[in-house]
Structure formats: C-alpha cells, structure tokens
Design a protein that fits this description.
THDP-binding (chains A, B), Rossmann fold, EC 4.1.2.- (chains A, B), 6-stranded parallel sheet, Phosphoketolase (chains A, B), 22 strands, 5-stranded parallel sheet, homodimer, thiamine pyrophosphate (chains A, B), alpha/beta, about 800 residues
C-alpha cells in the first residue's frame, strides 16, 4: 500500500516517536487492557469479576459462548477512536461488522458510562461488573454479537455483510457525522460487502458525512483463513485502490508500536477526510470524486489472548476465533484463564469497588460524543416527521369506476416528487432503486432532484447529480443496506424494486424485521420510520420479460415475520396507492410492502372512496355488487386480479342475468388473518359480513394462492374460499396470457363462480365448453398477432 | 491497465497489422454483420426477413422487446471465440452474463447450425429465418434473454449477478474446458458478482479448467451509466489486479481495429492460460496461485446501431439499451430501421434462399466444438451417476428407540466421506459450504480430501489443499453459484448451510428452480443431478447465537416453487438422514432440501425402519402408539419437534394412563399436500389413515406453523390439526427455552392434547396450573444456572 508494506517494514528499526506522549500511551494502553479484561470476563465468568479470590470452576459459566478472536482489535479501535473524538470533538459512531464482536462493544460502552445509563442495573461497580459478565450470552441476557441491545449500535453482527452499506446509509445527509466502519475480513467475502465498497461513488463530501472503513485483517474465519488475508498486501492494496480508496496499513503485534502507528494513521486519515470535505464544501474540488482514506488493520487474531493451549498455537490462528480455552475440567485450563485475565492487571485498572479508575476513564468522550450515546445510533431520537403534501392533489379524477386508465406508479411518482420537494430543506428523504426508478415510472421525481452520482459523467447522461436524492445502483443489497442505515439514523425513504428480484434481499429483510421486533421491547430505542417497499414491475406484467422475472413470493416471506412488524398492501388502483403510500410514509417501525403495477390500467375508486377503502383495509364494492345476500362473493386483492374480477363480474351479469354478486376487494392483506394473529385482522363478525358464512368465494389473488389459505384457514367460511393466483406458470407471452396460464383470467373466474352456485349447476357444461372455445381463440390470436385480443386490450367496465 | 491505456492510445497511430489476414478479417467481419443482422431482425421483424421488398409496418412486430445494447458486443465475442476454438481445437463454452442478450446467442447458434439441430423447424433458410425472427419475444416463442431454450447456455440472463460463479462451477474438475464468461458492467454492480471475482483463489490450474472473464464495458444500464465504466481505466485496472487478474483492454469503435486487437488479445490470453496450466500440470509453478488473464472489452453500447434517432444520440448511450427505434407510426423510423438493417448488407451474407453463405459459415467450428453444441452446456448428457457407498454401513445401532444419542450430521459426515472417497477418481462430487463444513459436523470428509485453496497458506492452517474437494468461502452466493455451475455441467454436489442464512440465496434458488422447471419441457435438455441442500445449525439449536440466527423460512420459500421440482425432507434422526441423503444424491433434476440438526440427540429408528419410514414419507410410529383408534394424534416433523413430541407422549402416559395416543412422524413434507398438488402427496385415504378424519392432531413442526396449514387445508381432518412451530420468538437462551418461547415444548404439547380430548376436559384446569408451575421452575432455573434443567437435558424415552 502506498503508505505501507515497505515503508512499514522499516518502522521498527527506526521508530518515530509517534503522536502519543508516553503518558497518553500508557493510559490508552490501560484503557485497552480494561476493555480486553471485561471482554474475557463476559465470555467466561459468572462470578468473581475482579479476581479477588483464586478462580474456581464455580466462577466459570457452564456454557461458554462468544467470540474472542475479533474482540481485542475492536477494543483497540474503540480506544483510539475515543482519542480522536475527544481531540477533535468529533460526531462519530462505529458500525461493527465482524460477527459476535459483542463483548468488546459492551465492555467499551460500559467503561464510558453509556451502558449503565441505558441499563441502570449494570452499575459501574463490582456488582455491576458481575452482572455485566453474567448477562452475556446468558438466557434472558444479551446476545454475543453487537445487537439492538448494544448502546451505540445501528448494526447487528449476526448475519454478515451489511456493515459498510449501513455505514454509508447513516452518513448520507449527515455532513457532520463520521462512521468508523469495521469490516471483518470474513464478512468481506460476502457478496453484499464486496459491492458495498463502491458506495463511495454515491457519497457527496459536500452534503454527506464520511465513512472511514477499517478492514480488520484478522486472518481467519471460523475454520479457514480469509481470502483478503492471503492475497498479499500488494494485491490487497490494488483491490482497495481499485475500489477507489486510499488504503493505510496498520500492522503489528507489538502493542506500543501499534498504538503509535494507529494513532498516527488516524490523525492522517482524519486530516484527509477534513481536507476532502473542505475542498468539496468550498467548491475547490472541481466536482471530482475524492479518493477517501481507509485503514487496513492487521493484528493477530485473539491478540493478547493465550498463545498456546494444549500444546497448540492459539493467538494469531483460527483457534482464537471463538473461545480459546474451554473444558475447565482440566485444572490447567482454569489456571491459564486466570493467568490470562491477570495479565491485564485488573487491580491497576479498577478500584476495589470495581470502579474504572479515573486516570483511564477520563480518556473517554462525554455526553453525546460517546459512541455509545450518540443519538445518530438511536435514530428515533432524531426523527423528524416528513412534511407530506396532500395526496388528494394527485388523485386521478374519475367520472365513474372503470372509466379512465392511469398508471398507478406514475401517479404515485407525482406525489413522491412533491414529497421530495417538500422535504428538500430537511434533507431527510431519499428514494432507492436498482436502476429502475424510471422503469418503475417514478421519473417525475427527477423534476425536483437527480440521481446521486459522484463518478465520471458524460454529455449524454441525464438526471445525474452530486446532490441527487435518488439512489440508483444495480444492487438490491446496496439499496436495502443504504436505506436501512438511513432509517436507523432517523430519516425516511422508499425502496422501489422489481417484485421478482426483491428476493435478493430476503435475508436482509429478515434481519431488519428482527431488529424492529427486538427494539420494540427496548424502551430507550425510539421508533424509527418504517422500511417501505414499493414492489412493481410485478408478476402479472412481466409477460415480456418471461418466467425469470415472475415471482410474487416476497409477500409470503414477509408474512412469516412477526405480525406487529409487517404490513402488506395491494392497492387495486392509483388512488388507493396514493392513500396507502401516504399512510406508509407516516408510519413508524414497520416493514410496509406495497405491491402496485406500473402499466396504465382502469381506475376504480375516487379519492374519497379510496381513502375509506384503505382505512377499512377491505370492503364490499357496492357499486359493483348486488344488494343483500349474494350467490357468490367475487373477492380480489391486487390490481390485475381486481381487473380480471371486474371483467368476470361483467361476463357473469351478461350470461347469468339473475345472478347476485358481491365484490369484495382487499387492500390490506393482513385483515384476512384472525385478530389474534395480526392487529389488522378483522374480527370474526366483520370478516363474515364481507365473505359470508356459507357462500362460495372466488378469490382472485396477486400472489401464490396458498398465502390466502394460510391467512384465512381459521375463518368460518374458509372451506368455501376458492383462490386463484400465481402458480408458477409463465413465459414470454402477453399480459392476458399470463392470467390465462395461471387460471386467473376473467373467463376462468366466471366459470369458477358458476361451478360453485348450486342453482347454476345445469349450465356448467355449456359454460365450460364456451370457456375452452374462448381459450382456443385466445391462443390462436396471440400466436398470430403477438398481442392480446383487441376485446381484451380494450375491455372496459360497464354496468 | 498493464497492457492498456497508454499503450493502446498509441495503437491507432501505429497500427500493427494484427493476427488476422485481410481475408480472414473480411470473413469474420461478415460473420459479425450476419449475427448483428439476425439480432436486429429478431427484435423487430415478423416477416420479410431478407428485406427482399421494402419494409412496411406490417413486417414489424406489434410489441418490440429485446435488448440491442449489449448484443453487438456479444456477437463480436462469439465470432472471435469461434476463431480461437477452430485454430486451437478448444473445448469452450460461453456464459453470457448481460441481461437480455438473447438475440445475439440465438443468432450465432443459428448461424453455426446448433440451433436448427435442436429446433428443426427453425431451418437454415429464408423460412427458418422468418420463424427465427418471429419466435423471439413472441407469445409461445422464446425469451429475450439467454435462457434454458438457448443451445449452449448454462446460464439465464434474467436476474443478474451469477455468471462468473456459474463459469467457475463449470470448469471445476474439467481440466480441458475453458469458459469464456461475459460479465456485463451492470451485472458487475451486484453483490454476487462483486465477490465472484475471488473465485480464482479456489481454482486449481492443474486439476480444473480455465475461466476467461470478459468484462463488457458497455457503459450503461437501463437508465444509468455503470460504475465500472466511470471510474477510469486506471482504477478499473487496479480493481481487476486487486481481484488477482491480469487485465487486458480491448477498446475501440473502429471495427477493423477492434477485430485485430481482440484477436491479438485472445491469442495472448489463450497462450497465458495454456502457460499457467502447463506450469501447474508439470509442477513447475511451485504451487503458486497464478494471475489469470481477463479482458475488458470497451466498445460502444448498441455498436453499429442507429447513431441518432429523433435528434438524440443513441449509439454509445443508454438509449441503445433496449429498442433503439420504436413507434413505427413515424415513417421516418421505418426508413431508419431498414437503413440500419441494410447497413449489414444481408444480400452479401445470405443467398436468395436465406442460407448463410459458405465463405462465412465455414468459419464456425463443427460438431461438439460449436459452443451451441458443446455437451458441457447440456450437463445431463455427460452425467455419470455417483458411486454410492451403502449408507447402512454408517447406521447408528439402536438397542431400541430413544436409547442412544448421536449427532445426525456427524453420522452423515462419515457417509459423505465415503461418497467422496468412492468418487475420487471420477472427480465429480464436491461439498460446498460457507465456512461451516466443520461447524456443521461434516468434518469426517477431511479424512479423504481437503478444502480447495489456492491462496497463501501458513503453518497453522489445517485441511487446506490445492486438490481439496470441499469448497469453503464465506459467501452463500458463491457456494450456490459454484454448485449450480457444477451441476449444470453434469456433476454432483451438496451445499450445507446454516438454516437461517440460506435465505441469502433465496433468489438464486428461484432462478435455478425455474431453470429446472423449464428444462423439463425441453426434450434435448437431459436431466441433471439435483441441487441438494443440507440445512443444519437450524432454528431450534441456535439458542446460543440468538434471534438473528433463527429462521426456518427457507422451506416456505421452496414450497412455493413448482411441485415437480422441489422436495423437502425433515429426517428426525441420523438413520433417516442417511436414507434421505442417499436418496437425494441419486435423484435427478430436483431441488432437495434436507433439514437436520448437528447436536447429539436421541435416536429413534434402526436403519431398516428408517429406510421404510423414509420410503413411505410419513408413518405411524407403532412402537410409540396405542393400537386402534386414538384419542389424539401426536404428529411431528423435524428432529427437535420429534424429540418434544416423544417427551410429551411420555408425560401424557404418565399423567393420563388411559390415554390412547398415535404418533405420526413426517419425513417427506410434501406427503401432506394433496396428490393433485404434489406427486409425493398422500391420497386421501392414506392421509386419513394416518391423521384420522375426526381426532385432534397436535402437530409439532420444525418451521412456521402456517406451512403445515397451507399444505393440509384441503384434508378431511384439517379443522382438527393444531400446529405448533416457530413463531418468530427467540433470543440468546437455552435449547429448551427456545421451544418454550415458541410453545413447542413437551409440556405445552401434552397440554394441547389434553385440552382437545373431550373426556379429559375436566382435567384441563389442573394440568394448566401444572404447566405454568413448570414454566416458572424452568425460567428460574435457567436464569440461575444458564443451562437447561438436568431433567430436560438428561431426559430419555422410556416405554
């Protein structure tokens, strides 16, 4: 690396004194020892926290959990970042990527006082220390990784790969904030992390804060070396420079040298960050993308831990990854653990009451400058509601149901443009999408803002801008990770995505939903803005893109998450989409999934009706229904199923004039569940009032039919609910053929109804024949013309 | 780049003649023009393929689909790779990453004859050409991307990001094979692709074939520039070198120059590949990881297409991404399209019958050397069944049910070791896992093989080897992508993964399942080995890792896929796991998901019973059941639910001695579905024979309860099926507390039974009180001791 291997190799021979005075070095080293001591204590001990008496097996936890390997490096960084914060009065938080690095962060926030402020029972005393040790990885205690419970964290170190995207999301529109993001070299192998480095092409140093990536080159994963630790430092340097960074190497295993080198490097990179920001902010950078600094920290895995256990090397190897000493039936192990802990000289660090001695404690920042107390890491504290324009101003005017066509997402785009404009000064709203904002018809937002872009530009480019508030990159992982980081630090956003490909972030959604669930039970975690998905370019209108683009299963995945966290909306037209979207942007601490099409389609509800309908979540469309008890309930959820249902209703009325039909439309899918399962669930009476207790229900559904069954199997009339939806049939074909292939077409729905109405049984054969004749004509027509029958394309609702 | 910008910049000024003779250059250029002509024809025309008469609007398709932008580059590469194949008699296939590059590959395979051999109706004539044009993106025709229908393809260009992983998977253990992998610069932004470059650390040049990555620096995505095209060539060079490659730049917009440069570069990189392989194979490389060559192809997007349309620049811009000219109501557009197509001078290329003229056609390779006919791209043709050791030799010997403990995956590991050993010479089986093979207790395989590793090694490393057949990398994407590539080229494998984190590849599973579905309907695609997942470290035994590691939803995701493609197995113990695994490794063209624990647990079935049970898919455990009609059916699926069910049965027998219990265990989850929905589904009579038609069923389930309801809602007795499973509750706690938190514990199951047996109603209050007292004791104990009650830990089945 430019600042590295050769240069460094000479350092020990000719050590510069470094920026730390001997006294400061001594105190910082003490602070580090204290953090390491507390980390080991958390992993091992349930009692005797200060080692006031010889360690016995009764002091040791029965189940040893936690990961020592990464911890001393994290502790080292925390102590050094503290110095930087204090000396420069920085507004800084840390995002900790390495898995199970919990003990280090818990130790440090306890040492600085943040932990005890959040958890008063974990006092800064001998008793508190005992509780601190005991709770770690203990039933009902705290997880072994950095978690929602950890003060100062916006990132869970459980599943790996999202740290750097979270860090960038956190600093967007936070010009004063620096996020020190520790990337584990194991984590660095994940796909999400491998592309996250490119986030620097979307960060505007004038408007946004800074991310300082610190690649912790710890060397090993659970059972293997890491790739980045075994490609040589030169190749790693090229990789980081190729990603657009200016890498600084901090390497060593002698604490004193590493302290000085790390301190000097941090001073240098901070100065570089400040220079980049100054140049961008006074305009002297010429609009060039800067080369941001990053640090490669190469220290031994499990540094300061036992060197040899049972005759095998541990420190600096994969054996230090988790618990370096186990099996305390061996008294030698107990002795070794004690020796290890005493090597940190706890009596020097903590007084006899267990209080961290002032000479060290005074090194920490104070108040909100402590990384464990920085409000950016508890975004709900900073959350300012969006200023929302009235969506009614964007309503599609309807002379009546099914009389005009509109593209729902394009209408929404107009409102989102205004949302963007209204909150431009607050700078707390962004749109995210994988190269699809315009494809998803939201391009009106470009009237008021561009797409963030810091890489090179060419004359032909459109709507790119350093100041753009639309985040476009061909990575669902980055869109999701950035948005999560943005929300977790107290801002708002919307992620629009092709429905099929949002599965790419299934696992990220999982982790975010779990974060939301857990933080609902942590009183000091304030609610954040909801994670809002707009899934469009959906299964029914990907006829041209073929089977690979057709998958409505994300809502199934979401429906498995905790009911108090997830909401799923299927607005049937533009006005209902407006109403739902406005609701979602006002909501807090949910995952909201909205599924809506982008193609021009018939509109059903005027804006007042739309609001009423969305508020109810589901309702009878009286204007399409007969009064009183029906022969059949034609239910629908989703825009295309609604269209086919309305067409089916028209067919039925034409051919069975005396039929009594009720049309029920469902916007809020969770109303289908029993109230015991979801707060939006309709009570039994309300559900039965819509779906009857004994009449056939033909339910045309946007997704896989089984989801409706899963939600309704406890309902009175469930046995009569017959669901049509996507059954994994599709290809490159026409829009109408897509519904035909999946038995969701109007003819099939009408036939389904006739088949289930007892008094129409004698008509079934004739209608079935007619159905197959119709299908024959359809197939012939599209094979000949490559498009749908004109009567289908031009179909219009009439009553 | 080392071979690039500066050096290249001088090229035009002093053009070396290049390796192509003027005559060869002329013919290759003609071949390229032909491919481009056919590509444009596919996108636009439904008739008049040779432009024998002036183009009219009736000749143009009503819906214009397909992506022109990437196509001329793909065509150029195909023509040049053909030259290389012919000159060096190469065994080569192409993996085409860019989305919707279908027309180019279809054109080229038609030109070389492969297409017509697979689809005789698409003759190599005027009529065939018309059908070729018409079928493209036409209902019932072929998709616009490279797809299963495309001869020579193992990769679908629909969802983006997996090309390079597929390419590496294809060449593992295929020393003679070279995969030219075209990576789109849009695709390169995805997470999966960004980490796929690191695959070169796992490729052994002595044993494996070679991947030649070709980054197609086309410049634009749908609506944005690409990152890699806008970081400058120097930074891109660093990035590629940092990934361990030796990048060669081929840049230009003058066809003649680019032809010569590309040809020269291909000669060079082939020589490099051969030199690397030779050195590795004769041992002269010293075991060093080589720096493989790769190519950056920088040509204008939509090259040779219209330069200006409606006054706006198109060629070389994002406007060339899809259909550069649309809206043929404008006669100028029609004229422009005709001019564009005629610019390729079709009459020179095709004779009056539409036959590709010999002077060009003769450039293509012949027989299996044609990339469209290479058997590696139709892996089923090459598939050799595994030689499978008898799993009975690995059976756990049981004195009786619940009398011995064993770790199921560890037992499986012993068998897998033998599978590995038996097929060592055939070199057609590998294990894949994200750094978890040992953590998942499969480490016995290291007795016979190591972990593939070509990066640096250190003395402390264990089991790393250039020749290892275990693929470990901390990326689920790479594990999945490599395995898919390995399977698609006719080999076998198993992917073991933490259950929660396999969601990372939900979307990859989708795409592979879709591939399997579609290829079942393509007669020339021969069945390939199944994609086998072993999900372990599962939800119930991630108590120590906490909520972030707990998610059993992958099987829900899989269950949404087409029934003839997916299989889900929940073996309750080691012997059933052996039986299931052996079955899966013999199966073809499925996705098999096996969920099994890694912790030592009680064993239930001797090996003969296990085989019988797995063959049936579900059955009554007679030895735990009372004869005749039961009061209650205690059903279970999954190892931990089975354990809790057995314990509940013991509790019930103790406290309700006259109770009549039937225990039903389900191994093959799909037996629950009606036969109409899944081929494994039990018929109604068989289902009712197990679950009765009217008795309460307490179903303890591994995953989310709703999955059981979704599968069984049409069954006679569904109203009485009461399912307990994971309800998204969990934290860092004890194993037993995990089941308590989710109401799946033995006490809850027993109480569930009592509550549902009418004649026991009067006991419910007392038993409920006892339940809560028990729970109180449990909570107190784990809070005090940090581990489960000894009576829980030591519980053993007795009857």
């Amino acid at each position: 690396m430019r600042h590295a291997p050769a240069e460094l190799a000479e350092r020990p021979a000719d050590p510069a004194p470094g920026p730390l005075s001997p006294e400061l070095l001594r105190r910082m080293h003490g602070y580090w020892r204290a953090a390491n001591y507390l980390s080991v204590g958390q992993i091992y001990l349930r009692a005797n926290p200060l080692l006031e008496r010889p360690l016995t097996i009764a002091d040791v936890k029965p189940r040893l959990l936690g990961h020592w390997g990464t911890t001393p490096g994290l502790n080292l960084l925390y102590v050094h970042l503290n110095r930087l914060i204090v000396e420069h009065d920085l507004n800084m938080i840390a995002v900790i990527g390495p898995g199970h690095g919990g003990p280090g962060l818990v130790a440090n926030t306890w040492l600085e006082g943040s932990y005890t402020e959040r958890y008063p029972a974990i006092e800064r005393s001998r008793n508190g220390m005992e509780r601190l040790f005991r709770q770690f990885s203990w039933p009902g205690g705290i997880p072994s990784h950095v978690a929602p419970e950890t003060p100062g964290s916006i990132h869970e170190g459980g599943e790996l790969g999202y740290s750097l995207a979270h860090a960038y999301g956190a600093v967007f529109d936070n010009p004063d904030l620096i996020v020190a993001c520790v990337v584990g070299d194991g984590e660095a192998e994940t796909g999400a992390l491998a592309t996250s480095w490119h986030s620097n092409k979307f960060l505007n140093p004038a408007r946004d804060g800074a991310v300082l990536p610190i690649l912790h080159l710890n060397g090993f994963k659970i059972a293997n070396p890491t790739i980045l630790a075994r490609i040589g430092l030169d190749e790693l340097d090229e990789l980081m420079r190729g990603y657009g960074y200016d890498p600084y190497l901090v390497e060593g295993d002698d604490p004193e040298e590493v302290h000085q080198l790390l301190a000097a490097t941090l001073d240098t990179v901070l100065a570089e960050i400040r220079a980049i920001q100054a140049a961008a902010r006074d305009g002297s950078d010429g609009g060039e993308r800067p080369r941001w600094p990053m640090i490669v920290l190469k220290t031994p895995k499990g540094w300061t831990g036992p060197k040899i256990v049972d005759g095998k090397p541990v420190e600096g190897t994969w054996r230090a990854h988790q618990v370096p000493i186990a099996d305390f039936d061996d008294p030698e192990h107990l002795r070794q653990l004690e020796e290890w802990m005493l090597s940190y000289r706890p009596a020097e660090l903590f007084d006899e009451c267990g209080k961290f001695r002032d000479e060290y404690a005074s090194l920490a920042p104070t108040g909100h400058r402590r990384m464990g107390s920085n409000p950016h890491a508890n975004g709900g504290e900073l959350l300012v509601p969006l200023s929302l324009p009235d969506f009614r101003d964007h309503a599609v005017a309807l002379p009546g149901p099914g009389q005009v066509k509109a593209a729902a997402t394009a209408v929404l785009g107009g409102w989102l443009r205004d949302v963007m404009a209204y909150n431009m000064d607050a700078a707390n709203f962004r749109l995210f999408g994988p190269d699809e904002t315009a494809s998803n018809r939201l391009q009106s937002v470009y009237d008021v803002t561009g797409k963030a872009w810091m890489a090179e530009t060419e004359a032909v480019d459109e709507n790119l801008s350093r100041d753009g508030r639309v985040m476009e990159v061909l990575s669902e992982h980055l869109c999701q990770g950035w948005l999560e980081g943005y929300l977790l630090t107290g801002r708002h956003g919307l992620f629009s995505c092709y429905e099929a490909f949002v599965h790419i972030v299934d696992s990220m959604l999982n982790q975010h939903a779990k974060w939301l669930k857990v933080t609902r039970t942590i009183p000091w975690r304030k609610p954040i803005a909801s994670l809002n998905y707009l899934l469009t370019s959906h299964v029914w209108r990907q006829d041209h893109n073929g089977l690979s683009h057709q998958d409505p299963g994300f809502i199934d995945h979401v429906a498995n998450k905790k009911a108090d966290v997830v909401r799923i909306y299927l607005p049937p037209d533009a006005n209902t989409l407006l109403s739902v979207a406005s609701h979602c942007l006002r909501s807090r601490h949910y995952v909201n999934v909205i599924v809506a099409g982008k193609n021009p389609e018939w509109q059903w509800l005027g804006i007042d009706e739309a609001v009423r309908h969305c508020t109810a979540g589901a309702g009878i469309w009286e204007w399409a229904s007969d009064a009183g008890e029906p022969d059949v309930v034609m239910a629908c959820a989703g825009d295309v199923p609604t269209l086919e249902t309305m067409a089916a209703v028209m067919l039925l009325r034409e051919f069975v004039p005396d039929i009594r039909i009720r049309v029920v439309n469902v916007v809020d899918l969770m109303v289908l569940q029993p109230q015991s399962e979801h707060p939006h669930g309709l009570d039994e009476r309300a559900f039965d009032a819509l779906f009857t207790t004994d009449k056939p229900v033909i339910f045309a559904f946007h997704g896989y039919p089984s989801l409706v069954h899963k939600l309704t199997y406890r309902r009175t009339n469930h046995a009569n609910i017959h669901v049509r939806g996507y059954k994994e049939e599709g290809t490159t074909t026409t829009p109408f053929d897509m519904v035909v292939l999946n038995d969701l077409d109007r003819y099939r729905l009408a036939l389904d109804a006739i088949e289930r109405i007892p008094r129409l049984r004698d008509r079934v054969t004739a209608e079935t024949d007619r159905y197959w004749a119709m299908m024959e004509r359809h197939k012939l027509y599209i094979a000949e013309h490559g498009d749908d029958l004109p009567e289908i394309r031009d179909w219009q609702w009439k009553r």
